[in-house]
Amino acid sequence: xxxxxxxxxVAVRHxxxxxxxxxxxxxxxxxxxxxxxxxxxFEICGRDTLCDGATLEHExxxxxxxxxxxxxxxxxxxxxxxxxxxxxxxxxxxxxxEFEIESIVVEDEKESACTA
Amino acid sequence: MHRIxxxxxxxxxxxNATIAxxxxxxxxxxxxxxxxxxxxxxxxxxxxLEAGLRDLPVRAGVLEGDVQGSYDADRIAxxxxxxxxxxxxxxFGGECHLDANMVRSGIQALPLDDIDLxxxxxxxxxxxxxxFRIGExxxxxxxxxxxxxDKPLKYPLMFRAAELVLxxxxxxxxxxxxxLEKFMHHLDxxxxxxxxxxxxxxxxxxxxxxxxxxxxxxxxxxTPA
Lengths: 116, 225
What we know:
heterodimer, A: alpha+beta, 3-stranded antiparallel β-sheet, 2 helices, B: alpha/beta, 7-stranded parallel β-sheet, globular
């Protein structure tokens, strides 16, 4: 619920008073965010806001680790933070911790191109 | 009416991070070290706090987080340490975790200038508390051996986030099928850098080491003799 509320808040702030039709989020594999639950709560939390009726689209970002010792990179099947090449436990998370709003689609009365 | 795409690229929890930064500023200004203490419900956080706070040679305070009730805060109050209770059902939607804003509201009731260490006992939950920073210096967790050996693999975000893992209820080991070596292997796989303490809040095993860890992280605190 709190995560869905955060998504709605960010979308509404960037909508600048315009009605939001969809919100695209990126969710890293390390995050314990369940997309279907997030969609469910997004629909509820968005009611009576500019996100009322908007859809939530998600992209899962695969977890990717890098060994600090030998620089090998891999996508783990299990959350094992050991390098499969040199067995070092000194690993960095290169990708998989994302939980970000990538973009929103809004209704606008004026002709406009994509804004940054 | 036209539809346009607006590029955002913003962390969904940026607002929480901003408030966590304000909390951190206030904690640093008061010279208070903050520990965010997390676990599943029933792992023994409050009992470990009671044991660890007893005779702790630093000035400590506690912020309790629960969905409802003040049972834990009442227990801590018996130790004569400053304690405040956050009930997430009271204005925070009954959330299953503490976030930076809830902590900000709770610390108003604590004498930050009179303590060196603040322990925030988070709501019992192995998922959401790991998602929300509160302005803490250290994130730690308790797990109990009744929960099984597989929990680090099932909740890697939590076990990865914790720099100290208290493995509690070790007094029950003769009565359970729990394989401590297997659990340690799973914990090492997820977080090889975590400090591990095997403890029993009931018998006192490992509690001296728990107390020493609290002293060691407290800024400006004297180390025990």
